[in-house]
Amino acid sequence: MDDKKEDEILLTSARVKRIIKDSIDSPNTRISGSGLKFMTEVATEFIEFMALAALDESERPKQYVDSTGVMKALVKMGLGEIADEIPSLDGFSEDMLEE
Known about the structure:
By secondary structure, the protein is mainly α. It has one domain (3-96): Histone, subunit A (Orthogonal Bundle). The chain has helices at residues 3-7, 13-23, 33-57, 67-76, 80-85. Helix 3 (33-57) packs across helix 4 (67-76). Residues 13-59 form the Transcription factor CBF/NF-Y/archaeal histone domain. This is Transcription factor CBF/NF-Y/archaeal histone domain-containing protein. InterPro entries: CBFA_NFYB_domain (IPR003958), Histone-fold (IPR009072).
């Protein structure tokens, strides 16, 4: 593993495990240690990737990652189905205010 990966901030395994268990409709689902570690790393990488993509799609100055940019990035990356599952942006309207 390179130095960059060793210094990387990861989501907590406990939180990722809870998300996995809550999203699967079977109470008997088990998650292996290696599966959990891998899922944690994948989720972290996805967030990093989405942040960069959202920054590119933001209509605000480029130092902002905003909800509109995130939604546009999801659609642009072919993840429109995920975007459709996300609640309305009404609660995040501060992201769309002009500065």
